[in-house]
Amino acid sequence: MQAPIIGHQQILEQLYHAIASNRVAGAYLFVGVANVGKETVALHFAKSINCLSPEEGACGTCLSCRKADDGNHPDLQIIRPSGAWIKIDQIRELQHRIIYRPLEGVRKVYILTEAERMNLEAANCLLKTLEEPPADSVLILLTTNLDALLPTIRSRCQIIPFHPLLVSDLAGHLMERFNINETQASSISTVAGGAVGKALGLLQEGAEFDEEIPEIMMVGNRLDAFRIAEKWTAQPEALDHLVTWYRDLIMLHQGAPADLLTHVHHAEELRQLATHYSRLQLQSAIKTIFETKAMLQRNVNATLALEVLALKLLRKP
Ligand SMILES: [Zn+2]
User: Fold this and answer.
1) Residue 146 and residue 38 share a domain
2) Ligand 1 mean position to 42 CA, how many Å?
3) CA 31 to ligand 1 center in whole angstroms
4) Do 230 and 288 sit in the same domain of this protein?
5) 34 CA to centre of ligand 1 in angstroms
6) pLDDT of 265
7) 268 Cα to the center of ligand 1, angstroms
8) Model pTM?
9) What is residue 4's predicted lDDT score, i.e. its pLDDT?
């Protein structure tokens, strides 16, 4: 039995049930934010369909499961954007293969990641397959943006929405599965926004969010700001974490009780700190952090953007 998937139990049960009752749809559309778990569930679904001894999903140990895990099951294919787009050639290739019967498994499974990256030409081409899906085949489209897909594509798929986990639930899973304490688990889950894949990525990177109040809230001189900006350059996730501290200060400004804070263990210090800021300053701090994050995604000069951010966030003497 392989390690259970974190979260999404209802979806998994729904999919297992479809397999057990022989009612697997010809096409699915998994919708949810990046790294929420769509691909993990899609792969597990694919494995479960072709598993030789399924028991509440894929066994993880039979020949079929092992081939799938190694990426060489002849009836499972994952199609990712080649460069920025899923190209029409990739869809044509899929259409060329999908008409043949499965070689080893019960069904041929095709997973298209980032389906919103199909251009119109590729999407129209795929539509033909969706209109008449060959027997013994399953297409699983994954997307972060339902609106970016043609309505004609959406309407031919069974849509399954994926939601991020509650931060507290995710933290619980992380503590159970990995050797980390409650503070680390809740900190990582908060930064990941409940998205399992993002949390696991952060763990793998060895991200350590020290649970001290962020330095930028404590210092007032420009040299400190530049030093802090340099740290952020190496660990941009720190910005997500920073937001959680400013949010706590805003909560305190609004008179919220300490147990509603993310950083509840620092409630007293934060209460002190909150008196140094106006509500407007805190709101503008959060806005500036989000603006900087958006700029970083557009590949602006990161060092410069982070330095400007640090200077803006400096506490006024
Ligand atoms: Zn198996």
Assistant:
1) yes
2) 15
3) 26
4) yes
5) 27
6) 78
7) 53
8) 0.74
9) 77
In angstroms, the CA 105 to CA 49 distance is: 8
Distance, CA of 40 to chain centre: 11
Residues in CB range of 78: below 8 A, 6 or more apart: 43, 110, 111, 113
Question: At what angle are helices 279-297 and 302-313 packed, to 10 degrees?
Answer: 180
Strands 158-161 and 137-143: unpaired
Ligand 1 centroid–CA 16 distance in Å is 13
Enumerate residues with CB within 5 Å of ligand 1 (an ion). 51, 58-59, 62, 65
Q: Count of domains in the chain?
A: 2
Pairing of strands 76-79, 108-112: parallel
Average pLDDT over residues 142-147: 95
Query: Which alpha helices (DSSP H) does 22-166 contain, by range?
Result: 38-50, 63-69, 88-98, 120-131, 151-154
Given a cut of 60, is residue 273 above it in pLDDT? yes
Residue 243 lies in a domain: yes
Q: Which two tokens stand for residue 70?
A: 């190694």
Cα-to-centroid distance, 86 and ligand 1 (Å): 30
Are 156 and 230 in the same domain? no
Distance 194 CA to ligand 1 centre (A): 29
Under 8 Å between Cβ of 99 and 134? yes
Domain region containing 95: 9-161
CA distance 294 to 296: 5
Distance 135 CA to ligand 1 centre (A): 22
